[in-house]
Design goal:
With 307 residues, the protein is mainly α. The protein contains eleven helices and two strands; from the N terminus they run H-H-H-H-H-H-H-H-H-H-E-E-H. Helix 7 packs across helix 8. The N and C termini lie far apart (45 Å).
Length: 307
């Protein structure tokens, strides 16, 4: 698409706004427990809610009704006093059964439902059908999102019908330099510079978010509110990593994929770059570090968070 395309540019702006709104909604869900406790204290202190607080409260109630918290973070909320438990926190016996594995939640829930088909399903039950369906959709989304970018690294001949399904899911993997309106900002950017940018981007975002969060921790807050806030920061990191994981790991692994043309090997992601020259080998070493941090480190971080 041309850089000045009006219709395409308008669609790109709308897409960016929608993705930004979705990310903001997920971050709000991450801090939902802290905001609920903060609004409760605020309402008790002033006796009536302000318009902004009222809007946030209604949004939190909508998130609770839609069970976004359980779908995204693999947990069941039994009451407003429930707190997302981080690996370093003490888990009470009554809360332990509410924790579910991020990667195995859907499978374990389906297995238990098959084993006990006559068991009741309710809003507070561990086999909540709404949350289970949401987790299944989320797992399917991640699966299709991953398959949609496989051909950027590996040359695989998929069946024609399967390619159509993957093409419909490919919209979820748009990165900044692929959005028509913003592609001009990356026009002329060298592949290796773009590679380093995407490798350091999540680390910079998380470091900046951590610094801001450290400054925003209420100095005179109660231990419970502090724990709620830190739990929200942890969950916010999970959301950001989820949003960036597929495009970043795709870029990270692209440095290892070469193809042979006329006896020479070139990068599949940029056929103007020759493989195994000094520049490529230097970035290959950096790529090994990125692969350890993202491809291996992020799943381990999720596994430790939802064990």
């Amino acid at each position: 698409a041309r850089c000045g395309g009006g219709l395409v540019g308008g669609g790109a702006v709308l897409l960016v706004l929608l993705l930004g709104a979705l990310l903001a909604l997920w971050l709000l869900a991450a801090f939902s427990r802290y905001l609920e406790a903060h609004l409760d204290v605020h309402a008790e202190a002033e006796g009536e809610a302000e318009s902004a607080s009222w809007l946030v409260q209604k949004t939190l109630e909508a998130l609770q009704r839609l069970k976004v918290d359980g779908i995204l973070f693999g947990r069941r909320a039994k009451s407003r006093r429930d707190v997302y438990t981080r690996p370093t926190e003490r888990v009470e016996p009554q809360e332990r059964s509410a924790l579910a594995s991020w990667t195995c939640a859907t499978v374990s829930l389906i297995e238990r439902m098959v084993e006990e088909p006559g068991s009741p399903v309710g809003a507070g039950h561990d086999r909540d059908i709404h949350t289970t369906a949401g987790q299944m959709l989320l797992q399917a989304f991640i699966y299709m999102q991953t398959l949609a970018v496989v051909n950027k690294v590996f040359d695989i001949r998929w069946p024609a019908k399967f390619v159509k399904v993957m093409s419909a899911a490919a919209i979820c993997n748009l990165t900044l330099d692929e959005i028509p309106l913003l592609s001009c900002l990356f026009k002329g950017v060298d592949y290796y510079r773009s590679y380093l940018l995407w490798g350091f981007l999540p680390l910079g975002v998380l470091a900046g978010a951590g610094a801001v969060a450290a400054c925003l921790v209420p100095p005179h807050s109660t231990p419970r509110k502090r724990e709620l806030f830190l739990s929200g920061v942890h969950r916010g990191a999970l959301v950001l990593l989820f949003a960036l994981y597929v495009p970043v790991t795709t870029r990270v692994m692209s440095i290892f994929s070469c193809r042979e043309i006329d006896g020479q090997r070139y990068l599949r992601a940029d056929l103007t770059k020759q493989c195994y020259d000094f520049e490529h080998l230097a970035h290959l070493v950096v790529g090994l570090v990125f692969a350890a941090v993202y491809v291996v480190g992020v799943p381990l971080f999720y596994g430790a968070s939802f064990r």
